[in-house]
Hints:
- Two copies of one chain form a homodimer.
- Chain A is α+β, with helices and mostly antiparallel strands.
- Helix content of chain A is 53%, strand content 8%.
- Chain A contains nine helices and four strands.
- In chain A, helix 4 packs antiparallel against helix 6.
- The longest helix of chain A has 24 residues.
- Chain A is globular.
- The two termini of chain A are 24 Å apart.
- The mean pLDDT of chain A is 97.
- Chains A and B meet through strand 4, helix 3, helix 4, helix 5 and helix 6 of A and strand 4, helix 3, helix 4, helix 5 and helix 6 of B.
Amino acid sequence: MKLYTYYRSQASFRVRIALNLKGITREDSFLHLEKGDQFAAAYRAINPQMVVPTLIDGDIKLFQSLAILEYLEEQFPEPPLLPADAQARAWVRGIALINAADSHPLIVPRVCHYLTDVLKVSDEQRLAWIQHWLGAGLQAIETLLAEHSASGVFCHGDRPTIADICLVTQVTPAKTFDLALDPYPRLMRIYESCMAISAFADAHPSKQPDAE
Amino acid sequence: MKLYTYYRSQASFRVRIALNLKGITREDSFLHLEKGDQFAAAYRAINPQMVVPTLIDGDIKLFQSLAILEYLEEQFPEPPLLPADAQARAWVRGIALINAADSHPLIVPRVCHYLTDVLKVSDEQRLAWIQHWLGAGLQAIETLLAEHSASGVFCHGDRPTIADICLVTQVTPAKTFDLALDPYPRLMRIYESCMAISAFADAHPSKQPDAE
């Protein structure tokens, strides 16, 4: 498979982890989002949203990281990234979406550029914005973990799911942006469990060939 | 089932459509997001993110609209809201996520309040922000529809899927916020096809008992 990726992209990070967990090898094609590689006509033809990741599987073009994770789960069921029963699957998907659909969209490069370039917010205001939305998502996840009896080493059960993938990809930028993480002990314990697994560690932004 | 809902919430609208399509009756519990009902301790105990919707199915508590749609699809497979083959499912989920994970999160009440209360943006700037992000998502969906041979009356195939649900819930606020919609003819044709179906029309914000 071929992955269009950027080392710092949370969404690319999610797909890298899932591919590693499933044991699927990939060829990376790097785009530098801060330099605007995603706006080039050639990439726009591949991904009209002009975002990463895009995953190419043969003649199939896949976009949106959670849709890609569901595709990988359906096509390559082992090891599973979702629990077996519907209630647990919904809970795991819900945790994943708190990251992917509520926190992450607010801090992506195009939104930060709009804040700076159009709304003329200061660097301090932009940093406070990023910390606010990352923190709101982490707080919600921490509370949900506390009331979920099947959480512990991982968000649900004894192996990583898409909830853990999304938890890790939210904690990583929280560290980058100096958010205090001690209010989230359950979540951080899970983060450490995950990062001890090579599929997660090898997917970390700092380990990518395009890392700066 | 019991649905915690707000008439203007795109995410509640998605769940209302899906329940209607599946023929599942519900009891509504209304929260007024602009009056802050979601911050009350009793609701926070139900939904720590303090957002709608929350769906209660017996003793199961479900949160995050796309996780709820996937749950309904797994538990009540007829009529299906996802196509059968993995490639088409990924495309449909990708379209849904352009709305749910990239456009909608930027215009929810809590974000608009942050823009106004913390960043002190003007009413005109806030409206331009909303129109910008709704338009960016609609443009990407329009382009993807143009290259997708299975789109036409609906986003994919001959019956509505979660992609159509999310398309409708993005067009509706675009109308509210006076966004010009003529650049999106494919998407608007699908919107009209959907709104001719009572499951969609009955779920519209204006038809809800808490509509103002």
